[in-house]
Amino acid sequence: MAAESTAFERALDQLGREIVAGELPAGHGDTIDALVRRTGASRSVVREVTRVLGALGMLSAGRRVGLRVLGREHWDVLDPRVIRWRLEGSERAQQIEELRALRLAVEPAAAAAAARAVRSGSASTDELERAVAAMRCAAGKPEATAFLQADLALHAAVLDLSANSMFARLRAVIDEALQERAVRERAHLLPDPHDLQLHVEVAGAITAGEAEEAAAVMRRIVERTSQEAAVRTDNTEGRHA
Question: Is 209 left (phi over 0), alpha (psi -120 to 50) or beta?
């Protein structure tokens, strides 16, 4: 079973990346047998892969037309897998910018809503406080380890405290943005003390019920991390030019 699961993930990642990269362009037609040869996976695995890609809006299937690759306008661009494939390919810069825009639209508003909920007495900050404590404890270890998990927990706690179910549904998207920075760019680096301080400040503002301050600090957090990602992407593209 484990080997089958690994084969599935490998084939899914291969075809997902190839669609995103345009190696399998929009309008391209294919068959299960051709994809079996392309991926080296079994027919049962490839059938399941095409089912998942279909659910993601990347592939359609019909009796007469077979399998057909769909354009970006059909993709479920909020799915973590699609985000990851875009970050790993030629659309990295565009995906980073789109994540930045989404986070700027959502997270400051969520932080403000969380502060208002706390001020009204309708929400508990226990999860938020635990996340801050965990971030402090992990400050002396590489960012991609315990610090990242605490960071994910803090941002998730803010979304939950906002009491906005649509904000909460975006947790997986924001998780991908946070993991992209920590795992790809800062895996062996210690957490930046200024980043830690900003997270302490946003948690403090929410706990104090200060909506405007919470939104302002969260906006600084998003802008800071997004600007760093954009600079790294520009530098990488410059080296490859």
Answer: left
DSSP code for 197: H
Q: Which residues contact 184 (CB under 8 A, 6 or more apart)?
A: 87
Secondary structure of residue 27 in the 3-state scheme? coil
The DSSP annotation for 33-90 comes to HHHHHHH---HHHHHHHHHHHHHTTSEEEETTTEEEEPPGGGS-TTSHHHHHHHHTST
| Ramachandran angles phi, psi of 60, nearest 5° | -120, 155
Pair 67, 29: CB distance under 8 Å:
yes
Backbone φ, ψ for residue 62 (5° rounding)? -145, 155
DSSP output for 179-194 = HIIIIIISTTSPPPHH
Instruction: Determine the Cα angle at 131 with ends 134 and 115, to 5°.
Output: 150
DSSP 29: E
Dihedral of the alpha carbons of 13, 16, 19, 21, in degrees to the nearest 10: -50
Residues 205/115, Cβ–Cβ less than 8 Å:
yes
Ramachandran angles phi, psi of 28, nearest 5°: -65, 130
Residues sharing a CB contact under 8 Å with residue 98, sequence separation 6 or more, in sequence order: 77
Q: Please name the residue that has the structure tokens 């699961």.
A: 5
pLDDT tens across 165-196, in order?
999 999 999 999 999 888 887 888 999 999 99
**pTM exceeding the 0.90 threshold for the entire prediction:** no
| pLDDT one-digit tens code per residue, 209-219 | 999 999 999 99
Longest Cα–Cα distance in the chain: 62
User: Hey, which residues does 59 pair with through a beta bridge?
Assistant: 69
